[in-house]
From TrEMBL:
It comes from the Eukaryota. Residues 17-26 have a biased composition (Polar residues). Residues 1-26 are annotated as: Disordered. This is Uncharacterized protein. The lineage of its organism: Eukaryota, Viridiplantae, Streptophyta, Embryophyta, Tracheophyta. It comes from Corchorus capsularis.
Length: 26
């Protein structure tokens, strides 16, 4: 898993870091 930033990044940022977070956030 890629390192996740300490702050809620935008869709592009989260998508680039972890696709799982994108699905959960979206």
């Amino acid at each position: 898993m890629a390192r996740l930033p300490p702050f809620p990044s935008p869709q592009i940022g989260i998508r680039d870091s972890t696709p799982t977070l994108t699905e959960s956030a979206a």
